[in-house]
Every structure is written in structure tokens, then in C-alpha cells.
């Protein structure tokens, strides 16, 4: 009888659902725990006498498997600490089960996603997490494999982005209680500059809340001199996270609208949950923006406070005017 697929150096086995019917092989491998990662009706007789845990998940890219990683890692570790071995399985032993084993190896050994995947494939060559799971594993590593992902800001931002995407897929703005106002969650962070309303000087945002984006290259042929940017190709907007002063507007449930300064009620920006194209040609989704023609960038790190006005103030070039 062929042996089960054992992860090298670990008391961890990986397989599909039919692996559970190989009772003699399971006994020889000293399997004491079984982790099932699938959403199918399961015959309870298959899991006797094992310690059993089920994670109901589909093998689709938008499935949130990340939220289960702390629990699956703890279950696998308990099996190993008990002196037994664990079988991690899904339907085919390819994507969902592999993702949970990879998450465990990343947490235990501090390895990268690629290193853990390569190690798992030594046991089972067909292992290949879907693209959505791979991105979640990368985020898992960036968060340093925490024991509680829901309290991690990076996870909260990712979950918020998912909510926005799901709402847009239904042609709707995100529900009011789902919108994440970043300044209510993030601790104070040093800022290089502030964005102030040009009319009343009210501070609207600081640099840590800006979403960086770059204009696409204007000349792909590096052998030719670069072409000067046209006014329409220069960014006319600052894109940023939702901030608490925007709450009265963003919680109305509209797909798009204008943003007014909370002090003087001047139109200072706009938003489009479904995204919009910046004047530099890049698409931002979702798009919450302040116009460079309606705000001033006030440097906070210089020894003398400096106000940097955008090109729109030039007498010759009216960049950004009329964009709102």
C-alpha cells in the first residue's frame, strides 16, 4: 500500500477526501487529528476516532481563508504537540489544504510563501493554491503570521477592501457600517505634509492617509529623450483613504459624489466607489480624491513651514481646474 503524502520533516500529511478511506495507511502514519477544509456533506464515520476540525471553505479566489489561519495553525500544532500526526485535506488535496499547511510552515519556521509551497510540493506535487489564496498567504506573511488576524490593521484594511469590491459587484456603494474611516483606526503617524483647504485653511488630510500612485511612463523607448508631460497627464488629484470628516457624505449610500470642506463647505474633491481615472491615466478603485487646485500642500518636516502650491496656480497652465 502506498504511503500517505507526508510533508518532509513534519508530522503533517496532506491529501484529498478519499485519503480518509485508507484506514490502514492512516493507522500506520499514526494520524490522530484530521483537519477538513471544504464545504461538503461529510460522513461522521470517516472521522472516528480522530480529533476532527472542519473549516467550511470553497476553492474560489474570493473565499476568505485568511481569517481561519490562526485556528488551523493552532490545530496542527496541537496535533504535533500531542505526539501524533495530522492529516490536512480538502476535496483534491491541491489548494485549500495546501494553503493551510503553507500558513503553518510560515508561522512555525518564518519562511516565505514560495519557500513553504516548494516544501509542500516535495510531498504532493499537485499542490497549487488558487491566486486568491496565494495573495492571502502573502498578506499573512506581511502581518508576521499573528495569532489574531482580526485585530491586525493590515487585515482590517484588506477586509474593508473586500467589502467594497463585493458591494460594487452588486452595483451598490458599501453599507455605511462597512466603511472604514482610517483616521479612526490608525494611530497617529508622522506626516511629511498636510493638505489644507485653500479657502479656509482647514486641514483635510495628512500624507500617511494618501494612496500613492504613479503616472504611466510617457515614453517606453529608453533610447529616445523623454517627452515632457502634457497638462492632462499630470496628476490633478490626491487619492486617499476615507476620513471621518467625510462621513456625512460617504454614508449616504451614493456611488459617487462631491466632497465639501467641513468648515467652509467649499467643493474640495469627489469620490467614486466604482473608481475613476486620474488625469495621469491611472485608474484608482475605489477613488476618494482631493483636487490639487482646491488644496494646498503644507510641509511639516521643513524647518520653516512651506506651502507648496500645485501647478494650477501658474498663470500659463491651468492644470486640474474644472476637474470637479
TrEMBL record:
<keyword id="KW-0378">Hydrolase</keyword>
<feature type="domain" description="Tyrosine specific protein phosphatases">
    <location>
        <begin position="67"/>
        <end position="124"/>
    </location>
</feature>
<comment type="similarity">
    <text>Belongs to the protein-tyrosine phosphatase family. Non-receptor class dual specificity subfamily.</text>
</comment>
<feature type="active site" description="Phosphocysteine intermediate">
    <location>
        <position position="90"/>
    </location>
</feature>
<dbReference type="InterPro" id="IPR000340">
    <property type="entry name" value="Dual-sp_phosphatase_cat-dom"/>
</dbReference>
<protein>
    <recommendedName>
        <fullName>protein-tyrosine-phosphatase</fullName>
        <ecNumber>3.1.3.48</ecNumber>
    </recommendedName>
</protein>
<dbReference type="InterPro" id="IPR029021">
    <property type="entry name" value="Prot-tyrosine_phosphatase-like"/>
</dbReference>
<dbReference type="InterPro" id="IPR016130">
    <property type="entry name" value="Tyr_Pase_AS"/>
</dbReference>
<dbReference type="Pfam" id="PF00782">
    <property type="entry name" value="DSPc"/>
</dbReference>
<dbReference type="GO" id="GO:0008138">
    <property type="term" value="F:protein tyrosine/serine/threonine phosphatase activity"/>
</dbReference>
<keyword id="KW-0904">Protein phosphatase</keyword>
<feature type="domain" description="Tyrosine-protein phosphatase">
    <location>
        <begin position="4"/>
        <end position="146"/>
    </location>
</feature>
<dbReference type="InterPro" id="IPR020422">
    <property type="entry name" value="TYR_PHOSPHATASE_DUAL_dom"/>
</dbReference>
<dbReference type="InterPro" id="IPR016278">
    <property type="entry name" value="DUSP12"/>
</dbReference>
<dbReference type="InterPro" id="IPR000387">
    <property type="entry name" value="Tyr_Pase_dom"/>
</dbReference>
<dbReference type="GO" id="GO:0005634">
    <property type="term" value="C:nucleus"/>
</dbReference>
<dbReference type="GO" id="GO:0004725">
    <property type="term" value="F:protein tyrosine phosphatase activity"/>
</dbReference>
